[in-house]
Amino acid sequence: GRYCATDPDNDLEKGISGADVVKESLRRLCIWKHYGENNGVGEIWWNYVEEFIARCASPDYFMNEDCVADCYKHAGVEADKINRCMI
Questions:
Q1: C-alpha span between 21 and 43 (Å, rounded)
Q2: Which candidate, 67, 33, 32, places its Cα nearest to that of 53?
Q3: Contact, 77 vs 44, CB < 8 A?
């Protein structure tokens, strides 16, 4: 890929990988693009980040798509918009 990040827990065999960090960073950039860039506040972006931290920040759920979808739902994010942006 075009971007990379170091493995946050320095364990290449398990846990959150650098690729996971890059994917979540891209997801947040896309959410900001659609829900924060125009007004500079990004209330829905903040809602998503809060939901993600509360629900998905552990290594077991960090890249769990069901967990991310749940965060979208609770934050008011349209999944289709973000998925298209991340391609």
A1: 22
A2: 67
A3: yes
DSSP-derived secondary structure for 6-57: --TTS-TTSS--HHHHHHHHHHHHHHHHHHTTTTS--HHHHHHHHHHHHHH-
* pLDDT, position 12: 82
pLDDT on residue 67: 98
Any idea what DSSP says for residue 61? T
Q: Residue 40 is encoded by which pair of tokens?
A: 């500079």
Tell me the pTM: 0.90
Sign, Cα dihedral of 87, 83, 51, 36: positive
